[in-house]
């Protein structure tokens, strides 16, 4: 019987664990290994044969010394600090509005808000690109007619133009997760609160918002991870503006190092640093939330 | 009444924000390249929707259709496999006690927090070593792993699969795999649908992994294919209009899917699975 | 077979001879033992070829119809660093590269550093040296090796809208001084228009501007890569454009993308100082302006010493790892020298032929309705004579071009000096090469 169970666990858990090891653990291990090597060149002008040699922490030092890499990390952190809260607030507000008793045409609005999540990031970026480029964008033209000179692609604005693309894509999705959480609350609770004389605002603030907390935490963690992965938006907008280059985000930077500059070892170090930052931030956020809950 | 007006106007403003780009896309798909640059983006200019969309499908021996099929293949097969693997693993973690169980779960949980794109690069290097890059498998295999799916399935199985049911089946002499296949999967259906949808949309929208793994454009999913058209526009201006038309065609099926399946997203998530 | 590698000896003798034309047929490295693999007679093979040149499929089709046993499968890839090179480098690493690739002259050193190109001397390419324009041939020569079959270059000129200049009452400029005066006059005549845009992130364009002014950014000396970006000539060019931007006489924006095309169509940009291959881009993206364009020589720094420049240019290279390098080379040679193929490439707008004497009588030598029925390519034929042919590239050119774009963008935004930006790029470039483990010297 015991052996039977062990076999069952192996059969159920084995396939996943095997693939998980192959697609998560092995690449991390391999990245760690690669990040400790460097290429040594020989021959005149360095054009002879190369070989990989142990480099210690040299690649990490190089990544951390590289203004472009650290700059890109700071940039996405700034992005996250502003965009993630804004988007989550928007998602929660929309969810609460749709769940309030005063809302009409709820299915239409819910679908409309959720629709952009069906547009992949690259395609959303191509689409918004057309709406940002001066001379083509009807939005820029409309604002211009109103006397507002706006450049969505200047070095001061482009980060927020990217934030807009991400918000457009994900606000509705996050909203749906919050709604799902709200729906899970038993109706009697609402009824009881109403009988106690709570108005719509109080109901939202003191009952629904605390109820939605787990969903808000979940969507925030996912958004933090997503922020650190920013890649396709700057990639697509890059040709349209002088303000975005090949190292604009950490991910784009690592991609450029690996595939354009052939610095695989440096790229591996950057990937490891990126994963580290992501883990620290998400764990940190979860612990912060956990501690508040305990209090 | 006052509330109703405020709520309605706020919702309407939000709807405009979310729908205007879609409206632009629909109009833009009826224009040629000159029209895209030269006409008012919010109104028609010499519309030929059918002709232009046919051009999208015909260009380069119909490569666009192939990209769509590839996307369906990657997302369909990848999400199905990921769902099955996640449910089996989640169920095992929830209902069997064995040494190292919590360690496995915590490692998987850490996997949720690692950006997929940070993995794609070393994964490419690794697949490279075993000659797996530039193939369907290079994209499919990583898509079959969903740590978040395992996490959802474990919580769901713990809450929704009654121990009594399992014991009864065992007493009836059913094998463990049969129990999983016939009973557990059925009970877990709402969670499975949720995991499937999460993964399907995730794979469909994925760009970085295929970008890194694939060089043969016959293997491209539609996201990568359209981006390659978009990158080629300066040499072949017709691709501006084809990219826009192709973008519209590619998002229509998924948008319909999203809207139709909304309630499944909710049902799977509501049933106790959101305990972070 | 082991990939051909440069040894010290071949390199040293090579640099000594580099100035002169590689002696046809005198290659000493034809080594029977290292003979490359080849197909058996009658065996049917398919060569993979990655390129982005518009219209090149017509040449490939022509080859395929004539060579049933050696078929070429063309894959269109996104040009340059946005698609083709990352894919080629990745495929090289994976050991399954295409047999042939489109490689720009500026990228050849980068590919050499990754051991990505096949030395074609062993396959007898030197017998064909005489078929190509010498300076384009030299772009693929490193030491004793020849690593690329030259395809086309980009002699520069000035495309301008004759109708708009007339409307503004301004003469097309022939010197950079006149250019500035004209820019000012245009701003006065029509505040919505500019004489041209300045592409801050186009490193290739800016290096071409410096090239015209007599700068020589890179060279090879002994074992060292020489970096001399921060020179008097480069600073002269940088300071000139800085002045125009500060005075709002040119519009800083990326060229050849949707917003720029819209302005070109609308005629709010009067001219484009660009390479010969720009004709196809203008005609393709602004078909409605047909007949209104003319071409003149680039504005000059000194009319007494006329100089032009080159922007872009690329080769057909046989990538290291090709199973059939001999057949691949045969195709590459045919593609870039066969008159019928060259004519098809010209019609597609591939640039200025690397094949000798391809101009007269070809499709280039015909009046074009887009340019008011002028034989506009005569301008580029002249321009081609005025280019300093000794320009060289380095293996980290993508980095340099990015640094240049960043530094100039920052200088524009923060209103700091362009000359300082150039000095920064010089330092960064030296650092890039050093980080690659290469030896660097400054002039």
UniProtKB/TrEMBL annotation, chain A:
InterPro entries: MetI-like (IPR000515), MetI-like_sf (IPR035906), UgpAE/MalFG_permease (IPR050809)
Keyword entries, A-Z: Cell membrane, Membrane, Sugar transport, Transmembrane, Transmembrane helix, Transport
Entry's localization field: Cell membrane
Keyword Transport among UniProt keywords: yes
ABC transmembrane type-1 domain mapped to chain residues: 73-285
Keyword Transferase listed: no
Stated name of the protein: Multiple sugar transport system permease protein
TrEMBL record, chain B:
Gene3D superfamilies (alphabetical): MetI-like (1.10.3720.10)
PANTHER family tied to this protein: ABC TRANSPORTER PERMEASE PROTEIN MG189-RELATED, ABC TRANSPORTER PERMEASE PROTEIN MG189-RELATED-RELATED
SUPFAM superfamilies: MetI-like
Keyword tRNA-binding: no
Top-level division of the source organism's lineage: Bacteria
All copies of domain ABC transmembrane type-1, residue ranges: 68-261
Subcellular location: Cell membrane
Keyword annotations: Cell membrane, Membrane, Sugar transport, Transmembrane, Transmembrane helix, Transport
Membrane topology: Multi-pass membrane protein
Organism from which the protein derives: Kribbella antiqua
Protein name: Multiple sugar transport system permease protein
Family, as annotated: Belongs to the binding-protein-dependent transport system permease family.
TrEMBL record, chain C:
SUPFAM superfamilies in the cross-refs: Periplasmic binding protein-like II (SSF53850)
UniProt KW keywords: Cell membrane, Lipoprotein, Membrane, Palmitate, Signal, Sugar transport, Transport
Signal peptide limits: 1-24
UniProt-listed InterPro entries: Bact_solute-bd_prot1 (IPR050490), SBP (IPR006059)
Matches recorded under Gene3D superfamilies: Periplasmic binding protein-like II
Source organism of the structure: Kribbella antiqua
One Pfam family this sequence matches: SBP_bac_1
Protein name: Multiple sugar transport system substrate-binding protein
